[in-house]
Design goal:
By secondary structure, the protein is mainly alpha-helical. The protein has helices at about 5-35, 40-55, 60, 65-70, 80-95, 110-120, 125-175, 185-235, 240-245, 250-275, and strands spanning about 5, 75. The protein has a domain at about 5-30 and about 55-145 and about 195-265. The protein contains ten helices and two strands, in the order βααααβαααααα. The chain is elongated, with a radius of gyration of 28 Å.
Length: about 280
Amino acid sequence: MNKRDILTPIGITLGFVMIMVAILNNGGSQELTSFLDIAGILIVLGGLTASMLITFKMDQIKLTFKLLKATSYQNNLQLPELIRLFVQLSERARREGILALENDLDDIEDPFIRKGITLVVDGVEPEVIKDIMEAEIIAMEDRHYKGRALFEKAGEYAPSWGMIGTLIGLVMMLNRLSDPATLGPSMAVALLTTLYGTILANLVFIPMANKLEGKTEEEVFIKQIIIEGIIGVQSGQNPRIFEEKLNAFLSRESKAIKQDEREVSGDFIGESVNEA
């Protein structure tokens, strides 16, 4: 199961809280109610929904809740664990042969890795394996792009519908010019729809689209490393050299942690030998 990514809900909640605090600080709870306009909310949300229905197919729109969930979870597959897995597979392949890897397939949870190992066991050529797995990555990027486009378009449409609501409010205000006392409140209501649309775009839709884009880039990076790992296992590289090659993909912090683990392990072994 993927780990919970709490930064997305925290960020959205914090944004709304800060807006409300700023309003309350300047006018109190009574001022807060003046920022609520049902008609403006209906114009922005209703217009936004209509635009999305026109722009996208129903199959894509059905992905909305799944994508919302995706922004709140992070990939559970960590790079150090991935490197450890491929080193173990490499050691077993050199010791027992490539066909012995078939016994490990049931223990591999990630379907992309499982598919690569299956191709290796089946004796498929390295170039063909790489082409097949890179095609999987391209297909994944395309799926992710189509999903991300939902939030990108929503981020474009929301401010536009806010402006449409403002224009509607201005027209209604101009029709009431005979009563100067209504101009101020009418102008305030007219501007609220622009506020709603801008907040939705810049606090919800655009940040979520950027979050999904970052997750896609991270997943592509991981899958490229998996391809390198699969080819390395198949080629029968020395496990120690193979590990050092894969360690090149680690961040500086991860490398430092791994080095500390090696030093601790080395100290433990040294102490054990001395005691013996």
